[in-house]
Amino acid sequence: MLNRYPLWKYLLILVVLVVGLIYALPNLFPQDPAVQISSAQSGETLDESEIERVENALNEADVAIKAIEQTNQQWLIRLSDTEDQLRTKEIASDLLGDDATVALNLAEATPGWLQAFSASPMTLGLDLRGGVHFLLEVDMDAALTQRLEVNGSAMRELLRSEGIRYRNTEVNDRSLSIDFAGEEDRDTARGLISREFPDFEYSSEEEGRAARLVMTLTDQSVNEIQDYAINQNLTTLRNRVNELGVAEPLVQRQGPDKIVVELPGVQDTVAAKRVVGATANLEFRLEARPDTPDSETESFSFRNDESRSADLMRDVIVTGDSVSSASRSFDENGRPQVNIDLDGTGGMLMNRATRSNIGRNMAVLYIEHKTEERTVMEDGEETIVREPYVERGLISLATIQSALGNSFRITGLDSPTEAAELSLLLRSGALAAPIYFVQERTIGPSLGADNIDRGLLSVQIGLLLVALFMLIRYKVFGIFANIALALNLVLLTAVMSMLGATLTLPGIAGIVLTLGMAVDANVLIFERIREELRNGMSVQQAIYTGYQRAFTSIVDANITTLLVAVILFSIGTGPVKGFAVTLSIGILTSMFTALLVTRAMVNLMYGSKPVKKLWI
């Protein structure tokens, strides 16, 4: 029979629409600005009386509190807007001091019955939710210097193991030089080192009575080191951002030596910058013996007491690169510490070094790359010059009581915050080269809210104009098309929420475009029905023929648009991808609503009924 669907098809359409409605509804419940308060002592819960003090102070400051909840040893204060959120953090931090950790957060507001279906709202991008945008530059010269220093340490160990005497090592740009007492030692060392380190070009020089071996990195090796540096930094930054708990962050390479980091929803920009940009690393070294030559030792002060210092061996046992995991805790005296686990190679090197040096002191050296900006005059114009420098300081100097293995702990830290940040940096991995902030841009939550309001207004205006056109042009069938258009918007929102897609301003543009294109299929179908009616075909036959003959044209048109969207997604970045995602999903949902949903409504209205005239 013409214009009749079997029962299962009606039920299938109904199920799809109900599921779409359920997963679209959480978007009507945006996240609440909140302040998260937890005890500074790991594993403990802040006393309720302390939270009452904070609540009373907030009431006196006329801060509107929506709710106060306790979950997983933490307290969560929900607030109405971001201004109250910032005031709450300031008040709570002043009241609780070092006894608590106060952090900005966003709390889910989705009702429990929707959460039972694992339904959650769409993630908002940087331009809608607010957050920070960083442009970072990788110091490629420092990457080469670090690699040369590591190679130099390995070469010295190799020479000592073979009994070859050397005097000094020096790093300069792309080269590494070692001085020897005579030509015979130099030539022997050259043959030994060149077999183990093929990435260098070797040459000999005479320096007074000393013989010098100069090793220069090849161009290919330089390129490989620089590519490794930026790729390793990308991995490390992604790990750090994941530790921050940022939803849908963006960390990607830009050009040969720059990295873009976008953190939507981050409001504590100082903390984010400190964690993202930290280039801290650790080195474990033995304390030098009194008879150690000066050329093999270095002197460092303690970070928390510059009046104290110690002489360390230049050779490094292991670095933070060998750390497989790190966690913060407290020792038996309640002082902060970091528990360290090394990987297999690091554990072997640590065991070998400590096994033969029981009773000797081992130091933990904290290394941090920083930059200092100063303004200079060049050609009559002020120019900001960035000068990098390195700070090195001892965290601890402890006696080796027994051979260490893969697991041990670091003490001597100043505060739980320092222990938490150090463990985070070690867990996420050290940067292969220092990075510097070239550009920092902050988008406030209020600007994000304004963008959302304007985006919603554009969607509403677009929806209204299309709906009016369809009603005026196609009357009753226009009503069918408008209902399908609204359901298309629901399904589009639901699919994006289920996929965890990020909604941005270009994504909203994609939604507006989808709304305009969604009725194209109905226009083709309705115009075809009109044409068949003008040709004298019966009402039922005209409806059937209109849907059948327009189907091919609709599929062809949407497939070509979908291919363009897929290409945009594959080669585009950031905003272009956001536009492509919403456009792709919108094409699929609009085909479902235009071809199946409107046909179902038309069938229910006119199917198998004697109809003499269509309002179309």
Task: Describe, in plain words, how this protein is organized in 3D.
Residues 305-433 form the SecDF P1 head subdomain domain. With 616 residues, this protein is α+β, with helices and mostly antiparallel strands. The chain has four domains: 7-26 and 444-606, Multidrug efflux transporter AcrB transmembrane domain (Multidrug efflux transporter AcrB transmembrane fold); 32-107, ACT domain (Alpha-Beta Plaits, 2-Layer Sandwich); 140-221, 2-Layer Sandwich (Hypothetical Protein, Haloacid Dehalogenase-like Hydrolase, Chain: A, domain 2), CATH 3.30.1240; 282-412 and 431-442, Gyrase A, domain 2 (2-Layer Sandwich), CATH 3.30.1360. The chain is built from 15 helices and 23 strands. It has a four-stranded antiparallel sheet with strand order 2-3-1-4, with helices on one face. Helix 8 crosses helix 11 (416-428). The protein starts with 6 loop residues before the first helix and ends in a 10-residue tail after the last helix. The mean pLDDT is 83.
Give the C-level CATH assignment of the largest domain. Mainly Alpha
Largest sheet strand order: 2-3-1-4
Q: What is the assigned CATH homologous superfamily of the largest domain?
A: Multidrug efflux transporter AcrB transmembrane domain
How would you characterize the largest beta sheet? 4 strands, antiparallel
Write down the CATH topology of the largest domain.
Answer: Multidrug efflux transporter AcrB transmembrane fold
Number of strands: 23
Note the gap between the termini. 22 Å
Residue runs with pLDDT of under 50 for 5 or more positions: none
Number of helices: 15
Helix content: 40-55%
Q: Helices and strands: which structural class?
A: alpha+beta
* Rg result: 33 Å
> How would you state the average pLDDT, rounded?
83
Number of domains: 4
Coiled coil: 51-85
Domain SecD export protein N-terminal TM: 2-104
Family: Belongs to the SecD/SecF family. SecD subfamily.
GO biological process, one term: intracellular protein transmembrane transport
